[in-house]
Specification:
The complex is a heterodimer of chains A (219) and B (391). In chain A, 28% of the residues lie in helices and 28% in strands. Chain A has eight helices and eleven strands. Chain A has helices spanning 12-21, 56-61, 72-78, 122-132, 147-151, 165-169, 189-194, 198-209, and strands at residues 2-7, 38-40, 46-51, 67-71, 83-87, 93-100, 116-119, 137-140, 156-161, 172-181, 183-187. Chain B is α/β, with parallel strands linked by helices. Helix content of chain B is 41%, strand content 22%. Chain B is built from 14 helices and 14 strands. The chains are: A alpha/beta (219), B alpha/beta (391). At the A-B interface, strand 5 and helix 7 of A face helix 7 and helix 8 of B.
Chain lengths: 219, 391
Protein backbone atom coordinates (compact mmCIF):
# COMPACT_ATOMS: atom_id res chain seq x y z
CA UNK A 1 0.00 0.00 0.00
CA UNK A 2 1.43 3.36 -1.08
CA UNK A 3 0.73 6.29 1.22
CA UNK A 4 0.66 9.84 -0.08
CA UNK A 5 0.69 12.92 2.17
CA UNK A 6 -1.29 15.83 0.75
CA UNK A 7 -1.50 19.34 2.15
CA UNK A 8 -4.80 20.91 3.13
CA UNK A 9 -5.54 24.26 1.57
CA UNK A 10 -4.47 25.90 -1.67
CA UNK A 11 -2.39 23.01 -3.01
CA UNK A 12 -4.98 20.28 -2.45
CA UNK A 13 -7.08 20.58 -5.62
CA UNK A 14 -4.12 20.51 -8.00
CA UNK A 15 -2.43 17.77 -5.97
CA UNK A 16 -5.50 15.54 -6.27
CA UNK A 17 -5.65 16.26 -10.00
CA UNK A 18 -2.00 15.24 -10.51
CA UNK A 19 -2.43 11.96 -8.71
CA UNK A 20 -5.59 11.29 -10.75
CA UNK A 21 -3.32 11.44 -13.81
CA UNK A 22 -1.34 8.60 -12.24
CA UNK A 23 -4.54 6.57 -11.76
CA UNK A 24 -4.96 7.35 -8.05
CA UNK A 25 -8.32 8.91 -7.24
CA UNK A 26 -8.29 10.91 -4.01
CA UNK A 27 -11.18 13.17 -5.06
CA UNK A 28 -13.22 12.51 -1.88
CA UNK A 29 -10.70 14.79 -0.17
CA UNK A 30 -12.14 17.68 -2.21
CA UNK A 31 -15.65 17.05 -0.98
CA UNK A 32 -16.67 19.84 1.41
CA UNK A 33 -18.44 17.31 3.60
CA UNK A 34 -15.42 15.06 3.89
CA UNK A 35 -14.05 14.77 7.42
CA UNK A 36 -11.85 11.72 6.80
CA UNK A 37 -8.15 12.37 7.18
CA UNK A 38 -7.12 9.14 5.47
CA UNK A 39 -8.76 8.29 2.17
CA UNK A 40 -8.10 5.11 0.18
CA UNK A 41 -7.99 5.19 -3.60
CA UNK A 42 -10.74 3.08 -5.24
CA UNK A 43 -8.07 0.91 -6.91
CA UNK A 44 -6.97 -0.23 -3.45
CA UNK A 45 -3.25 0.31 -4.04
CA UNK A 46 -2.84 3.66 -2.30
CA UNK A 47 -4.22 5.96 0.34
CA UNK A 48 -3.90 9.69 0.95
CA UNK A 49 -3.27 11.42 4.27
CA UNK A 50 -4.70 14.91 4.62
CA UNK A 51 -2.28 16.92 6.72
CA UNK A 52 -1.20 20.49 7.35
CA UNK A 53 1.22 21.96 4.84
CA UNK A 54 4.23 21.90 7.17
CA UNK A 55 3.49 18.32 8.22
CA UNK A 56 3.76 16.84 4.70
CA UNK A 57 7.58 16.53 4.76
CA UNK A 58 7.39 15.21 8.34
CA UNK A 59 5.20 12.26 7.32
CA UNK A 60 7.46 11.61 4.35
CA UNK A 61 10.72 11.95 6.31
CA UNK A 62 9.51 9.44 8.89
CA UNK A 63 8.48 7.04 6.14
CA UNK A 64 4.77 6.93 7.04
CA UNK A 65 4.11 8.36 3.58
CA UNK A 66 6.28 7.38 0.64
CA UNK A 67 5.21 10.38 -1.46
CA UNK A 68 3.88 13.85 -0.72
CA UNK A 69 3.09 17.22 -2.28
CA UNK A 70 4.24 20.39 -0.56
CA UNK A 71 5.46 23.87 -1.39
CA UNK A 72 9.16 24.48 -1.89
CA UNK A 73 8.92 27.17 0.81
CA UNK A 74 8.07 24.52 3.40
CA UNK A 75 10.95 22.30 2.24
CA UNK A 76 13.40 25.19 2.48
CA UNK A 77 12.15 26.15 5.91
CA UNK A 78 12.00 22.71 7.54
CA UNK A 79 14.99 21.08 5.79
CA UNK A 80 13.93 17.52 6.45
CA UNK A 81 15.62 14.57 4.74
CA UNK A 82 13.17 14.04 1.87
CA UNK A 83 13.83 13.57 -1.83
CA UNK A 84 12.45 16.39 -4.05
CA UNK A 85 11.30 14.56 -7.18
CA UNK A 86 9.33 16.94 -9.38
CA UNK A 87 8.54 20.63 -9.62
CA UNK A 88 4.78 20.44 -10.15
CA UNK A 89 4.54 24.06 -11.24
CA UNK A 90 1.34 25.00 -9.41
CA UNK A 91 0.91 26.92 -6.15
CA UNK A 92 3.32 29.60 -7.32
CA UNK A 93 4.24 32.34 -4.86
CA UNK A 94 7.24 34.41 -3.80
CA UNK A 95 9.06 34.52 -0.49
CA UNK A 96 9.64 38.22 -0.08
CA UNK A 97 10.86 40.90 2.30
CA UNK A 98 8.12 43.47 2.86
CA UNK A 99 8.08 46.77 4.71
CA UNK A 100 5.61 49.56 5.36
CA UNK A 101 4.97 51.36 2.07
CA UNK A 102 5.77 54.64 3.83
CA UNK A 103 9.10 53.40 5.21
CA UNK A 104 11.25 54.51 2.30
CA UNK A 105 13.16 51.21 2.19
CA UNK A 106 13.60 50.03 -1.39
CA UNK A 107 15.92 47.03 -0.96
CA UNK A 108 16.56 44.62 1.88
CA UNK A 109 20.08 45.99 2.23
CA UNK A 110 18.57 49.41 3.05
CA UNK A 111 17.28 47.99 6.34
CA UNK A 112 19.27 49.15 9.36
CA UNK A 113 21.58 46.61 11.03
CA UNK A 114 20.02 44.87 14.04
CA UNK A 115 16.51 45.83 12.99
CA UNK A 116 13.67 43.45 13.80
CA UNK A 117 12.25 41.18 11.11
CA UNK A 118 9.11 39.15 11.79
CA UNK A 119 8.42 35.91 9.94
CA UNK A 120 6.87 32.47 10.00
CA UNK A 121 9.90 31.36 7.96
CA UNK A 122 12.77 32.24 10.26
CA UNK A 123 15.24 29.78 8.74
CA UNK A 124 14.69 31.14 5.24
CA UNK A 125 14.92 34.69 6.59
CA UNK A 126 18.07 33.91 8.56
CA UNK A 127 19.79 32.39 5.52
CA UNK A 128 18.82 35.37 3.39
CA UNK A 129 20.07 38.05 5.79
CA UNK A 130 23.24 36.01 6.50
CA UNK A 131 23.90 36.06 2.78
CA UNK A 132 23.38 39.83 2.76
CA UNK A 133 25.74 40.05 5.73
CA UNK A 134 23.09 42.12 7.48
CA UNK A 135 22.61 41.29 11.18
CA UNK A 136 18.91 41.35 12.10
CA UNK A 137 16.81 40.27 15.06
CA UNK A 138 14.37 37.64 13.85
CA UNK A 139 10.99 37.36 15.53
CA UNK A 140 9.10 34.12 14.99
CA UNK A 141 5.36 34.58 14.44
CA UNK A 142 2.88 31.88 13.48
CA UNK A 143 0.55 34.04 11.36
CA UNK A 144 -0.68 37.56 10.48
CA UNK A 145 2.93 38.67 10.23
CA UNK A 146 1.83 41.85 8.42
CA UNK A 147 0.98 43.19 11.87
CA UNK A 148 4.69 43.32 12.72
CA UNK A 149 5.47 46.55 10.82
CA UNK A 150 1.93 47.93 11.34
CA UNK A 151 2.28 47.76 15.13
CA UNK A 152 5.90 48.83 15.03
CA UNK A 153 7.16 45.56 16.48
CA UNK A 154 9.37 44.98 13.43
CA UNK A 155 10.82 47.02 10.58
CA UNK A 156 10.15 44.31 8.03
CA UNK A 157 8.62 40.90 7.47
CA UNK A 158 9.61 37.88 5.42
CA UNK A 159 6.53 36.12 4.11
CA UNK A 160 4.92 34.35 1.18
CA UNK A 161 3.35 36.65 -1.39
CA UNK A 162 0.94 35.25 -3.97
CA UNK A 163 -1.09 38.15 -5.41
CA UNK A 164 0.24 40.88 -3.11
CA UNK A 165 -3.25 41.92 -2.07
CA UNK A 166 -2.80 41.21 1.66
CA UNK A 167 0.33 43.37 1.67
CA UNK A 168 -1.43 46.21 -0.16
CA UNK A 169 -4.50 46.06 2.07
CA UNK A 170 -2.25 46.41 5.10
CA UNK A 171 -0.12 49.25 3.74
CA UNK A 172 2.95 47.08 3.08
CA UNK A 173 5.10 46.67 0.00
CA UNK A 174 7.43 43.85 -1.07
CA UNK A 175 10.94 45.16 -1.67
CA UNK A 176 12.95 42.02 -2.46
CA UNK A 177 12.30 38.38 -3.28
CA UNK A 178 14.17 35.59 -1.53
CA UNK A 179 12.97 32.94 -3.99
CA UNK A 180 9.91 31.79 -5.86
CA UNK A 181 8.14 28.70 -4.64
CA UNK A 182 5.98 26.11 -6.37
CA UNK A 183 4.63 22.73 -5.31
CA UNK A 184 7.05 19.81 -5.21
CA UNK A 185 6.44 16.09 -5.37
CA UNK A 186 8.63 14.62 -2.65
CA UNK A 187 9.51 11.08 -1.63
CA UNK A 188 11.09 9.10 1.19
CA UNK A 189 14.69 8.47 0.06
CA UNK A 190 15.03 4.92 1.38
CA UNK A 191 11.53 3.95 0.20
CA UNK A 192 12.52 5.17 -3.27
CA UNK A 193 15.69 3.09 -3.19
CA UNK A 194 13.72 0.02 -2.06
CA UNK A 195 11.03 0.64 -4.66
CA UNK A 196 10.37 -2.13 -7.15
CA UNK A 197 8.82 0.27 -9.64
CA UNK A 198 5.43 1.15 -8.19
CA UNK A 199 6.56 4.51 -6.76
CA UNK A 200 8.64 5.43 -9.79
CA UNK A 201 5.70 4.62 -12.09
CA UNK A 202 3.54 7.11 -10.22
CA UNK A 203 6.29 9.74 -10.38
CA UNK A 204 6.73 9.16 -14.11
CA UNK A 205 2.99 9.30 -14.80
CA UNK A 206 2.69 12.58 -12.92
CA UNK A 207 5.71 13.95 -14.80
CA UNK A 208 4.26 12.87 -18.15
CA UNK A 209 0.86 14.37 -17.41
CA UNK A 210 2.37 17.71 -16.42
CA UNK A 211 5.07 18.75 -18.88
CA UNK A 212 6.14 21.58 -16.59
CA UNK A 213 7.16 18.99 -14.03
CA UNK A 214 10.88 18.37 -14.06
CA UNK A 215 12.90 16.35 -14.53
CA UNK A 216 11.62 13.86 -17.14
CA UNK A 217 14.00 10.97 -16.89
CA UNK A 218 15.04 9.21 -20.09
CA UNK A 219 13.97 5.60 -20.46
CA UNK B 1 11.76 20.56 39.02
CA UNK B 2 11.59 18.80 35.64
CA UNK B 3 10.48 15.19 36.07
CA UNK B 4 11.07 14.05 32.49
CA UNK B 5 14.36 12.99 30.90
CA UNK B 6 16.33 15.68 29.04
CA UNK B 7 14.88 16.51 25.61
CA UNK B 8 15.57 13.63 23.24
CA UNK B 9 16.89 11.24 25.91
CA UNK B 10 14.98 8.12 26.92
CA UNK B 11 14.80 6.13 30.10
CA UNK B 12 14.03 2.49 29.49
CA UNK B 13 11.85 0.17 31.53
CA UNK B 14 13.18 -3.20 32.78
CA UNK B 15 11.60 -5.14 29.90
CA UNK B 16 13.25 -2.94 27.29
CA UNK B 17 16.61 -3.14 29.04
CA UNK B 18 16.31 -6.93 29.18
CA UNK B 19 15.46 -7.15 25.46
CA UNK B 20 18.34 -4.81 24.58
CA UNK B 21 20.75 -6.89 26.63
CA UNK B 22 19.57 -10.13 25.04
CA UNK B 23 20.00 -8.71 21.54
CA UNK B 24 23.49 -7.45 22.40
CA UNK B 25 24.39 -10.86 23.83
CA UNK B 26 23.12 -12.66 20.74
CA UNK B 27 25.22 -10.42 18.52
CA UNK B 28 28.27 -10.67 20.79
CA UNK B 29 28.10 -14.46 20.63
CA UNK B 30 28.34 -14.29 16.84
CA UNK B 31 31.17 -11.74 16.92
CA UNK B 32 33.14 -14.01 19.28
CA UNK B 33 32.61 -17.04 17.04
CA UNK B 34 34.17 -15.05 14.21
CA UNK B 35 37.22 -14.21 16.33
CA UNK B 36 36.36 -10.66 17.36
CA UNK B 37 37.49 -9.36 20.75
CA UNK B 38 35.55 -6.91 22.86
CA UNK B 39 36.84 -3.41 23.51
CA UNK B 40 35.23 -0.60 25.46
CA UNK B 41 35.97 2.74 23.77
CA UNK B 42 35.37 5.85 25.85
CA UNK B 43 32.12 7.75 25.52
CA UNK B 44 34.11 10.99 25.69
CA UNK B 45 36.65 11.81 22.99
CA UNK B 46 38.69 14.79 21.94
CA UNK B 47 36.93 16.73 19.22
CA UNK B 48 40.08 16.21 17.11
CA UNK B 49 39.39 12.48 17.08
CA UNK B 50 35.72 12.92 16.26
CA UNK B 51 36.55 15.48 13.59
CA UNK B 52 39.02 13.09 12.00
CA UNK B 53 35.89 11.51 10.59
CA UNK B 54 36.32 14.22 7.98
CA UNK B 55 33.99 16.34 5.89
CA UNK B 56 31.95 19.41 6.83
CA UNK B 57 30.81 20.68 10.19
CA UNK B 58 30.48 18.25 13.05
CA UNK B 59 27.14 19.74 14.06
CA UNK B 60 25.87 16.42 15.39
CA UNK B 61 28.60 16.06 18.03
CA UNK B 62 27.49 16.78 21.59
CA UNK B 63 30.23 19.07 22.86
CA UNK B 64 31.23 19.15 26.49
CA UNK B 65 32.15 22.22 28.51
CA UNK B 66 35.72 21.34 29.46
CA UNK B 67 39.21 22.84 29.42
CA UNK B 68 40.03 21.07 26.16
CA UNK B 69 37.56 20.58 23.29
CA UNK B 70 35.72 17.33 24.05
CA UNK B 71 32.61 15.65 22.73
CA UNK B 72 30.46 12.55 23.20
CA UNK B 73 30.98 9.87 20.56
CA UNK B 74 28.30 9.98 17.83
CA UNK B 75 29.33 6.46 16.77
CA UNK B 76 31.81 3.80 17.83
CA UNK B 77 34.07 3.60 14.78
CA UNK B 78 36.31 6.67 15.22
CA UNK B 79 37.14 5.91 18.90
CA UNK B 80 37.96 2.27 18.05
CA UNK B 81 40.05 3.26 15.02
CA UNK B 82 41.98 5.70 17.23
CA UNK B 83 42.62 3.03 19.87
CA UNK B 84 43.62 0.50 17.21
CA UNK B 85 46.25 2.90 15.87
CA UNK B 86 47.63 3.93 19.26
CA UNK B 87 47.31 1.56 22.25
CA UNK B 88 46.73 -1.46 20.02
CA UNK B 89 49.19 -0.42 17.31
CA UNK B 90 51.63 -3.21 18.16
CA UNK B 91 48.99 -5.95 17.91
CA UNK B 92 49.24 -8.09 14.79
CA UNK B 93 46.82 -7.36 11.97
CA UNK B 94 44.13 -8.19 11.12
CA UNK B 95 42.70 -6.77 14.31
CA UNK B 96 39.15 -7.88 14.96
CA UNK B 97 37.32 -5.80 17.57
CA UNK B 98 33.75 -5.43 18.69
CA UNK B 99 32.07 -2.99 21.02
CA UNK B 100 28.66 -2.02 22.25
CA UNK B 101 27.44 1.08 24.00
CA UNK B 102 25.54 4.31 23.83
CA UNK B 103 26.21 6.86 21.12
CA UNK B 104 25.06 10.46 21.28
CA UNK B 105 24.01 13.01 18.71
CA UNK B 106 22.61 16.48 18.99
CA UNK B 107 20.20 18.23 16.72
CA UNK B 108 17.93 21.23 16.81
CA UNK B 109 14.33 20.26 17.45
CA UNK B 110 11.42 21.88 15.68
CA UNK B 111 10.89 24.03 18.77
CA UNK B 112 14.33 25.50 18.15
CA UNK B 113 15.88 23.93 21.26
CA UNK B 114 18.79 21.51 21.36
CA UNK B 115 17.86 17.85 21.59
CA UNK B 116 20.19 14.97 22.24
CA UNK B 117 19.49 11.49 20.99
CA UNK B 118 21.05 8.52 22.69
CA UNK B 119 21.30 5.27 20.75
CA UNK B 120 22.50 1.87 21.79
CA UNK B 121 24.79 0.37 19.16
CA UNK B 122 26.63 -2.89 18.80
CA UNK B 123 29.17 -3.40 16.06
CA UNK B 124 32.48 -4.72 14.80
CA UNK B 125 35.59 -3.26 13.24
CA UNK B 126 38.08 -5.25 11.16
CA UNK B 127 41.35 -3.34 10.90
CA UNK B 128 44.45 -3.86 8.81
CA UNK B 129 43.04 -5.68 5.78
CA UNK B 130 43.00 -3.48 2.67
CA UNK B 131 41.76 -6.26 0.37
CA UNK B 132 38.17 -7.00 -0.57
CA UNK B 133 38.41 -10.20 1.48
CA UNK B 134 37.68 -8.07 4.56
CA UNK B 135 34.59 -6.62 2.85
CA UNK B 136 33.33 -10.11 2.16
CA UNK B 137 34.03 -11.31 5.71
CA UNK B 138 32.23 -8.31 7.13
CA UNK B 139 29.13 -8.84 4.99
CA UNK B 140 29.07 -12.55 5.82
CA UNK B 141 29.32 -11.67 9.52
CA UNK B 142 26.49 -9.18 9.13
CA UNK B 143 24.35 -11.90 7.55
CA UNK B 144 25.24 -14.35 10.31
CA UNK B 145 24.08 -11.72 12.79
CA UNK B 146 20.74 -11.30 11.03
CA UNK B 147 20.22 -15.04 11.44
CA UNK B 148 20.80 -14.94 15.18
CA UNK B 149 18.51 -11.92 15.60
CA UNK B 150 15.58 -13.90 14.23
CA UNK B 151 14.53 -11.60 11.40
CA UNK B 152 11.61 -13.16 9.57
CA UNK B 153 10.14 -13.01 6.10
CA UNK B 154 7.67 -10.32 7.11
CA UNK B 155 10.60 -8.04 7.96
CA UNK B 156 11.79 -8.23 4.32
CA UNK B 157 15.47 -7.63 5.18
CA UNK B 158 17.37 -6.02 2.33
CA UNK B 159 21.04 -5.19 2.15
CA UNK B 160 21.58 -1.94 0.24
CA UNK B 161 25.12 -1.83 -1.12
CA UNK B 162 27.00 1.06 -2.67
CA UNK B 163 30.63 1.85 -3.31
CA UNK B 164 32.28 5.20 -2.84
CA UNK B 165 34.99 4.42 -5.41
CA UNK B 166 32.52 3.24 -8.03
CA UNK B 167 30.46 6.41 -7.64
CA UNK B 168 33.64 8.49 -7.90
CA UNK B 169 34.56 6.66 -11.12
CA UNK B 170 31.09 7.33 -12.51
CA UNK B 171 31.45 11.01 -11.64
CA UNK B 172 34.87 11.32 -13.31
CA UNK B 173 33.17 12.46 -16.51
CA UNK B 174 31.49 15.35 -14.65
CA UNK B 175 33.53 18.59 -14.59
CA UNK B 176 35.44 18.85 -11.32
CA UNK B 177 33.64 22.05 -10.32
CA UNK B 178 30.27 20.27 -10.34
CA UNK B 179 31.37 16.93 -8.93
CA UNK B 180 30.61 17.62 -5.26
CA UNK B 181 27.16 19.05 -5.99
CA UNK B 182 26.50 16.16 -8.33
CA UNK B 183 27.50 13.54 -5.75
CA UNK B 184 25.34 15.26 -3.17
CA UNK B 185 22.33 15.34 -5.49
CA UNK B 186 22.73 11.64 -6.31
CA UNK B 187 23.21 10.48 -2.73
CA UNK B 188 20.33 12.68 -1.49
CA UNK B 189 18.08 11.26 -4.22
CA UNK B 190 17.48 14.74 -5.59
CA UNK B 191 16.67 14.66 -9.32
CA UNK B 192 15.64 18.33 -9.23
CA UNK B 193 19.13 19.33 -8.06
CA UNK B 194 20.63 17.14 -10.81
CA UNK B 195 18.47 18.84 -13.43
CA UNK B 196 19.55 22.24 -12.13
CA UNK B 197 23.29 21.52 -12.51
CA UNK B 198 24.98 23.66 -15.16
CA UNK B 199 25.71 20.67 -17.39
CA UNK B 200 24.76 19.84 -20.99
CA UNK B 201 21.37 18.15 -21.30
CA UNK B 202 22.73 14.74 -22.29
CA UNK B 203 25.01 14.68 -19.24
CA UNK B 204 22.09 15.52 -16.96
CA UNK B 205 20.11 12.73 -18.62
CA UNK B 206 22.95 10.28 -17.94
CA UNK B 207 22.97 11.32 -14.28
CA UNK B 208 19.20 10.89 -14.05
CA UNK B 209 19.60 7.40 -15.50
CA UNK B 210 22.35 6.72 -12.96
CA UNK B 211 19.99 7.79 -10.17
CA UNK B 212 17.67 4.97 -11.26
CA UNK B 213 20.36 2.34 -11.62
CA UNK B 214 19.91 -0.21 -8.83
CA UNK B 215 18.86 -3.81 -8.45
CA UNK B 216 20.20 -7.32 -8.50
CA UNK B 217 24.03 -7.08 -8.15
CA UNK B 218 25.10 -9.08 -11.24
CA UNK B 219 22.85 -7.05 -13.55
CA UNK B 220 23.93 -3.72 -12.10
CA UNK B 221 27.60 -4.69 -12.30
CA UNK B 222 27.10 -5.59 -15.97
CA UNK B 223 25.72 -2.13 -16.63
CA UNK B 224 28.50 -0.49 -14.65
CA UNK B 225 31.11 -2.45 -16.62
CA UNK B 226 29.55 -1.22 -19.85
CA UNK B 227 29.93 2.37 -18.62
CA UNK B 228 33.26 2.17 -16.83
CA UNK B 229 35.08 -0.58 -18.71
CA UNK B 230 37.42 -2.90 -16.83
CA UNK B 231 37.96 -1.50 -13.34
CA UNK B 232 39.71 -3.36 -10.52
CA UNK B 233 37.43 -2.09 -7.78
CA UNK B 234 34.38 -3.10 -9.79
CA UNK B 235 35.78 -6.62 -10.12
CA UNK B 236 36.49 -6.65 -6.37
CA UNK B 237 32.94 -5.51 -5.68
CA UNK B 238 31.52 -8.18 -7.98
CA UNK B 239 33.59 -10.86 -6.27
CA UNK B 240 32.61 -9.61 -2.79
CA UNK B 241 28.93 -9.74 -3.64
CA UNK B 242 29.29 -13.19 -5.20
CA UNK B 243 30.82 -14.37 -1.94
CA UNK B 244 27.81 -13.28 0.08
CA UNK B 245 25.03 -14.04 -2.39
CA UNK B 246 24.39 -17.66 -1.41
CA UNK B 247 24.41 -16.93 2.33
CA UNK B 248 22.02 -14.03 1.83
CA UNK B 249 19.68 -16.19 -0.23
CA UNK B 250 19.69 -18.94 2.40
CA UNK B 251 18.76 -16.40 5.09
CA UNK B 252 16.12 -14.64 3.00
CA UNK B 253 18.07 -11.37 2.90
CA UNK B 254 17.85 -9.52 -0.41
CA UNK B 255 20.88 -7.74 -1.82
CA UNK B 256 20.50 -4.61 -3.90
CA UNK B 257 23.44 -2.87 -5.51
CA UNK B 258 22.75 0.84 -5.70
CA UNK B 259 25.66 2.90 -7.11
CA UNK B 260 24.22 6.24 -5.96
CA UNK B 261 23.60 5.04 -2.41
CA UNK B 262 25.88 6.50 0.28
CA UNK B 263 25.05 6.53 4.00
CA UNK B 264 25.20 9.71 6.04
CA UNK B 265 28.68 9.24 7.46
CA UNK B 266 31.26 10.85 5.27
CA UNK B 267 34.26 8.84 6.49
CA UNK B 268 33.37 5.83 4.37
CA UNK B 269 35.55 5.66 1.28
CA UNK B 270 34.98 2.21 -0.20
CA UNK B 271 32.18 -0.32 0.17
CA UNK B 272 29.13 1.08 1.97
CA UNK B 273 26.00 -0.77 3.05
CA UNK B 274 22.84 -0.51 5.04
CA UNK B 275 20.53 -3.27 6.22
CA UNK B 276 16.93 -2.15 5.92
CA UNK B 277 13.83 -4.01 7.10
CA UNK B 278 10.16 -3.31 6.53
CA UNK B 279 8.52 -2.19 9.75
CA UNK B 280 4.77 -2.10 10.27
CA UNK B 281 4.46 1.32 8.64
CA UNK B 282 7.85 2.40 7.35
CA UNK B 283 11.30 1.09 6.41
CA UNK B 284 13.60 0.61 9.40
CA UNK B 285 17.37 0.94 9.06
CA UNK B 286 18.83 -1.57 11.49
CA UNK B 287 22.51 -1.62 10.57
CA UNK B 288 25.00 0.28 8.47
CA UNK B 289 28.68 0.15 7.76
CA UNK B 290 31.45 0.26 5.25
CA UNK B 291 35.14 0.74 4.57
CA UNK B 292 36.97 3.68 6.13
CA UNK B 293 40.68 3.34 5.22
CA UNK B 294 41.08 7.13 5.12
CA UNK B 295 39.85 7.51 8.71
CA UNK B 296 42.37 4.91 9.92
CA UNK B 297 45.11 6.65 7.90
CA UNK B 298 44.50 9.88 9.83
CA UNK B 299 45.35 8.08 13.10
CA UNK B 300 48.05 5.83 11.70
CA UNK B 301 51.84 6.15 11.62
CA UNK B 302 51.85 4.17 8.39
CA UNK B 303 48.97 5.67 6.37
CA UNK B 304 49.73 3.47 3.36
CA UNK B 305 48.94 0.31 5.32
CA UNK B 306 45.86 1.78 7.00
CA UNK B 307 42.65 -0.12 6.42
CA UNK B 308 39.40 -0.59 8.27
CA UNK B 309 35.89 -1.90 7.69
CA UNK B 310 33.08 -2.15 10.16
CA UNK B 311 29.37 -2.02 10.86
CA UNK B 312 27.04 -1.13 13.68
CA UNK B 313 23.61 -2.45 14.61
CA UNK B 314 20.99 -0.10 16.04
CA UNK B 315 19.73 -2.16 18.93
CA UNK B 316 16.62 -0.20 19.81
CA UNK B 317 15.36 -0.19 16.23
CA UNK B 318 15.84 -3.96 16.11
CA UNK B 319 13.99 -4.39 19.40
CA UNK B 320 11.05 -2.31 18.23
CA UNK B 321 11.02 -4.09 14.87
CA UNK B 322 11.02 -7.58 16.40
CA UNK B 323 8.48 -6.69 19.10
CA UNK B 324 6.02 -4.93 16.79
CA UNK B 325 2.95 -6.90 15.86
CA UNK B 326 3.49 -9.36 18.68
CA UNK B 327 1.54 -9.19 21.92
CA UNK B 328 3.29 -9.27 25.27
CA UNK B 329 5.00 -12.59 25.82
CA UNK B 330 4.49 -14.88 28.82
CA UNK B 331 5.44 -13.39 32.19
CA UNK B 332 9.17 -13.55 32.66
CA UNK B 333 9.30 -11.99 36.13
CA UNK B 334 10.83 -13.86 39.08
CA UNK B 335 8.88 -16.22 41.28
CA UNK B 336 7.03 -14.39 44.06
CA UNK B 337 7.53 -15.77 47.56
CA UNK B 338 4.72 -14.75 49.92
CA UNK B 339 3.90 -15.66 53.54
CA UNK B 340 0.93 -15.22 55.89
CA UNK B 341 2.33 -14.45 59.37
CA UNK B 342 4.95 -11.87 60.42
CA UNK B 343 6.71 -14.62 62.37
CA UNK B 344 7.37 -16.47 59.09
CA UNK B 345 9.78 -13.82 57.78
CA UNK B 346 12.95 -15.70 58.87
CA UNK B 347 11.68 -18.87 57.19
CA UNK B 348 10.73 -16.90 54.08
CA UNK B 349 14.22 -15.43 53.80
CA UNK B 350 15.76 -18.89 54.20
CA UNK B 351 13.46 -20.26 51.50
CA UNK B 352 14.27 -17.31 49.22
CA UNK B 353 17.98 -18.07 49.42
CA UNK B 354 17.34 -21.77 48.87
CA UNK B 355 15.50 -20.92 45.65
CA UNK B 356 18.38 -18.70 44.56
CA UNK B 357 20.87 -21.52 45.27
CA UNK B 358 18.85 -23.77 42.99
CA UNK B 359 19.20 -21.16 40.23
CA UNK B 360 15.65 -19.79 40.39
CA UNK B 361 15.05 -16.05 40.30
CA UNK B 362 12.72 -15.26 43.19
CA UNK B 363 11.61 -12.15 45.04
CA UNK B 364 10.03 -11.73 48.44
CA UNK B 365 6.74 -10.04 49.19
CA UNK B 366 8.11 -8.16 52.19
CA UNK B 367 4.97 -7.90 54.33
CA UNK B 368 2.61 -10.74 55.28
CA UNK B 369 -0.21 -11.45 52.88
CA UNK B 370 -3.81 -12.36 53.80
CA UNK B 371 -3.98 -15.56 51.76
CA UNK B 372 -2.66 -17.38 48.67
CA UNK B 373 -5.34 -15.84 46.43
CA UNK B 374 -4.22 -12.33 47.34
CA UNK B 375 -0.59 -13.34 46.69
CA UNK B 376 -1.56 -14.67 43.26
CA UNK B 377 -3.42 -11.48 42.42
CA UNK B 378 -0.37 -9.44 43.41
CA UNK B 379 1.87 -11.70 41.31
CA UNK B 380 -0.30 -11.10 38.26
CA UNK B 381 -0.01 -7.33 38.77
CA UNK B 382 3.74 -7.54 39.18
CA UNK B 383 4.29 -9.89 36.24
CA UNK B 384 5.68 -12.76 38.32
CA UNK B 385 5.82 -16.08 36.53
CA UNK B 386 4.71 -18.05 39.62
CA UNK B 387 3.90 -17.79 43.35
CA UNK B 388 5.16 -19.84 46.26
CA UNK B 389 2.97 -19.48 49.31
CA UNK B 390 4.21 -20.13 52.83
CA UNK B 391 0.87 -20.45 54.56
Amino acid sequence: MITVALAKGALLKDSVRRFAAAGLDFSPLLDDDNRQLMVPSPCGTARALLVRNADVPVYVAYGQAQLGVVGDDVLREHRLPVAPLLDLGFGGCRMAVAVKASSGYRRASDLPAHCRVASKFVRCAEAFFDQLDLPVELIHLTGSVELGPITGMSEAIVDLVATGRTLRDNGLVAIEDLFTSTARLIGHPIALRLDHGSLQTIVDQIATAAPAARPPVPA
Amino acid sequence: MALQPAAGARDLNPGQVERNRRLCQQLAAVYRLWGYQEVAPPAIERLDTLQARGGGPQAEVVRLAAEEPLGLRPELTAPIARAACTRLAARPRPLRLWAEGATFRTFVGDGGGQRISEQLQSGVELLGVPSAAADAELLRLLLACTETLGLRGRHQPLLLVGHHGVLSALLDRVPAAERTACRQALTNFDPLALAALPLPGHEVDQLLVLLRLRGEPAQVIDKLQQQLGPLALLEDLAQTLQLVEAAAQRLGVGIQLDPSFQPQFNYYDGLVFKLVCQGEAAPVEIASGGRYDGLVARFSLDPDAAAGVGFGFRIEEIRDLLDSGEGPGPSQGPLLLAYGQASQLPAALERLEALHRSGLAAELLPDPCADAQQAEALARTRGNQAVEWLG
